[in-house]
């Protein structure tokens, strides 16, 4: 499996094998919001910590995301990183991991391309990927109505599938789990995530983080449809699919 590269002055464009047919089509300006506004390609946006843009290209829907820093260091530079080689950039690593997972059949967005913009010793980065069709995040859904037991169990089974494959999600929270129109769960936002040897310690920490996220949302809004029974369904399904012979 390889990542294909094209260079434009201070820009480097990266393409997974599945998007190789787009290498001569996608240009550096495709990673700017201004380009899609002029071509009337913007279909919406998502307000998280930063804005993520939804784009329509021919018959496809894409997501455009810029990489931002978090924590205290963001006060000094909110979107620039020290450049130590293309494979060390956050965009390359996420694109590579997404491509691996997508090829493996895990429920993740299909990667399209990434852009690295270099300026002396630092770089900025952007990522294009497929939008999950009719995907809604878990919090938005739980604010409307409760999920059925089968849906909680499917989320637990999905997380087990990632963990059994050694996928460590650095920010497994309730906003990064989506359900599509068929109520099938997906996992998104793999920035700073990685493949690890499956071990109970980090897997347990992942689940603890998700539970803390759900409780946090419940504390913010008491109308959120989440309780201990829901978590029991998720956890029971997770353990069953992690250790089916136990």
Jot down its keywords.
246 residues; alpha+beta; Transferase(Phosphotransferase), domain 1; 2 domains; eight-stranded antiparallel β-sheet; three-stranded antiparallel β-sheet; 6 helices; 26% strand
Shape: globular
Largest sheet entry: 8 strands, antiparallel
Question: What is the arithmetic mean of pLDDT?
Answer: 93
Strand proportion, as a percent range, falls in: 25-35%
Spans with pLDDT under 50 lasting ≥5 residues? Answer: none
Q: What's the SSE pattern? A: EEHEEEEHEEEHHEEEEHH
Topology record:
Layout: E1 3-8, E2 11-16, H1 33-38, E3 42-47, E4 51-57, E5 60-66, E6 81-82, H2 90-104, E7 111-119, E8 122-130, E9 136-137, H3 138-144, H4 149-164, E10 167-168, E11 177-179, E12 185-187, E13 194-195, H5 200-220, H6 228-242
Antiparallel strand pairs: 1-2, 2-7, 3-4, 4-5, 5-8, 6-8, 7-8, 9-11, 10-13, 11-12
Helix pairs in contact: 4-6
Q: How would you summarize what this structure contains?
A:
This protein is α+β, with helices and mostly antiparallel strands and about 250 residues long. The protein has helices at about 35-40, 90-105, 140-145, 150-165, 200-220, 230-240, and strands spanning about 5-10, 10-15, 40-45, 50-55, 60-65, 80, 110-120, 120-130, 135, 165-170, 175-180, 185, 195.
């Amino acid at each position: 499996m390889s990542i294909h590269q094209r260079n434009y002055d201070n820009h480097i464009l990266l393409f997974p094998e599945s998007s190789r047919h787009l290498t001569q089509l996608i240009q550096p300006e495709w990673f700017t919001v201004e380009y899609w506004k002029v071509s009337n390609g913007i279909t919406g946006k998502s307000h998280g910590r930063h804005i993520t843009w939804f784009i329509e290209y021919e018959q496809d829907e894409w997501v455009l995301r810029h990489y931002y820093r978090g924590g205290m260091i963001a006060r000094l530079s909110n979107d620039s990183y020290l450049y130590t080689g293309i494979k060390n950039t956050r965009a390359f690593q996420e694109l590579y991991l997404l491509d691996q997972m997508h090829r493996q059949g895990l429920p993740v967005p299909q990667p399209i391309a990434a852009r690295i913009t270099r300026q002396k010793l630092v770089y900025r980065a952007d990522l294009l990927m497929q939008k999950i069709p009719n995907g809604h995040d878990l919090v938005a859904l739980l604010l409307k109505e409760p999920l059925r037991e089968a849906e909680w169990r499917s989320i637990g089974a999905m997380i087990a599938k990632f963990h059994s494959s050694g996928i460590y999600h650095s920010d497994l929270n309730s906003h990064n789990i989506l359900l599509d129109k068929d109520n099938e769960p997906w996992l998104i936002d793999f920035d700073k995530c990685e493949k690890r040897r499956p071990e109970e310690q980090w897997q347990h920490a992942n689940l603890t983080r998700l539970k803390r996220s759900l409780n946090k949302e419940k504390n913010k809004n008491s109308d959120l449809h989440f309780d201990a029974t829901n978590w029991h369904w998720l956890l029971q399904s997770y353990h069953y699919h992690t250790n089916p012979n136990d």
